[in-house]
């Protein structure tokens, strides 16, 4: 049945919503967990001096705030009631000094909390980053990039807020609550019990309000991210939109999203409009109740409570109620921080599926003999993608891997580079099983030029030196000259110091490839891996790259994955793969003569592009 446009849009919208919900399906809050809290506290240990100074500031501030109120009550009860003007001046001076010291302490309380939070998050980020860098590829296969970024950004942010605000603001509020309670007890036990009875009502109303608000705000954020994501997509894909005349439908979809967002905005405002007056009324209602009971007690003939003390009590009740509101708010934030911390630590605690064996040894200087001995490999258990692979590569030989898409070419080079481990069988380099060597010693002797020639932000020079940061400028120049790209690189706007832009966007495809070749050549590896290194470039650039490639490959054991058969015609051995098995092997001439799978592949390819005749 054909779907009408509005239905399709609603379907799109629902689909989009589901995707967002799925992405955000992780728990937003977690109960307070003292194991997690104490683990976060361990990150403060290196900064013990700052942490201790902060704790002193917290205690001082918890006392200072009620003390200010106490000082006012004392002044009213003392010099004011006794009409002692010099006494009032003295009290005012004392109050002024106390207020000054309160602000002084507040400055350091805030500053130290911010600094400590930053330091903790800095260390956590670095630890997580180092951990991720050492995870094997199998981990990244299972874990979405978005998840990792969200751990690094939003969970980290929740923990930062948890340390900088929640923890210390709550400690101050809690201390203030205790001091105010002690003062009220001192004034009048009966009235204090009344206040104590009111506290849970205020706490619960507050908690309910904040819980509701945080859920509504989460929905609001989600709806807003749908709007911004659609906006970004529409701007980036405007050419496709115009090309397919989708403007009206896109506008309709956007209108729906905006309407959806307004709905959540209205809900937030409605909740605020209802609860803020209710909370205020609660406090006022309690004040009236206290006024009635308090006045009744003061007016009793045998009362020990004076009018001045009742006024003081009122001040202290206020000092007692306001931290309850603060704690109610911080509690929500604390639960969010708990969820963030739990996810962060779960990631930090994820052990790599495999690491170097405890008795792994550095691989001695490699000559370049590589052997696959009955190698089986699967990315997912029970679904082998390489089945009993056997071959030998002598030092200096080029092994070309050929086959249809998904036949297992990239998997073979992933195993040579030990990005993954085989399920069974052995991969030996110079007769040494790769399982028993350290990854670092292997990677130092392997050069890799990947299909997606990845450049990092930085200059051309930084990227060439990526493989050997200590290489001298002369060495870099020699390598570039060997590849025939020295003039080209030195002719860039800032020569080798030219920034490559994000992922090399400021360089042409050919230049990017040359940077990768130079990087590989500089490392001077004995084993070289090339994954479709010469795809998607024009014929002139390709010829240049082919020549450069010959230079890079010379004298090394090379594994080349290329769909372009022209690049592998000169390989010593061609392995033809099909569904994870080697179905043919030999050099170009032998395979053509056999008139099998390779010959057919070559034939098809020759028809698509003009190539030298086979043979
Ligand atoms: N990271 C991965 N996780 C799970 N399965 C994978 C992964 N990478 C590849 N595969 C699967 O393994 C099989 C072999 O893939 P491989 O990338 O080795 O093929 P290929 O011959 O290099 O293909 P292409 O020419 O398209 O690059 C395919 O069925 C593929 O779907």
UniProtKB/TrEMBL annotation:
Instruction: List where the protein spans the membrane.
Output: 53-76, 88-106, 166-187, 193-209, 274-298, 310-328
Show where the ABC transporter domain sits: 370-604
Please provide the record's keywords in A-Z order: ATP-binding, Cell membrane, Membrane, Nucleotide-binding, Transmembrane, Transmembrane helix, Transport
| InterPro entries the UniProt entry points to | AAA+_ATPase (IPR003593), ABC1_TM_dom (IPR011527), ABC1_TM_sf (IPR036640), ABC_transporter-like_ATP-bd (IPR003439), ABC_transporter-like_CS (IPR017871), P-loop_NTPase (IPR027417), Type_1_exporter (IPR039421)
Q: Please give the name of this protein.
A: Sugar ABC transporter
Q: Signal peptide span per the entry?
A: none
The subcellular location is:
Cell membrane
Q: Name one GO molecular function term.
A: ATP binding
UniProt xrefs under SUPFAM superfamilies = ABC transporter transmembrane region (SSF90123), P-loop containing nucleoside triphosphate hydrolases (SSF52540)
Report the residue ranges that make up the ABC transmembrane type-1 domain in this protein. Answer: 53-336
What taxonomic ancestry is recorded?
Bacteria, Pseudomonadati, Planctomycetota, Planctomycetia, Planctomycetales
Q: Which PANTHER family match?
A: ATP-BINDING CASSETTE SUB-FAMILY B, ATP-BINDING CASSETTE SUB-FAMILY B MEMBER 6
Q: Does the keyword ATP-binding apply?
A: yes
Q: Which organism is it from?
A: Planctopirus hydrillae
What Gene3D superfamilies has UniProt attached to this entry? ABC transporter type 1, transmembrane domain, P-loop containing nucleotide triphosphate hydrolases
Membrane topology value = Multi-pass membrane protein
Report the CDD domains cross-referenced here.
ABC_6TM_exporters, ABCC_Glucan_exporter_like
- Entry GO terms, CC: plasma membrane
Residue ranges of coiled coil:
none
Main localization of the protein described in the UniProt heading? membrane
* Pfam families recorded: ABC_membrane (PF00664), ABC_tran (PF00005)
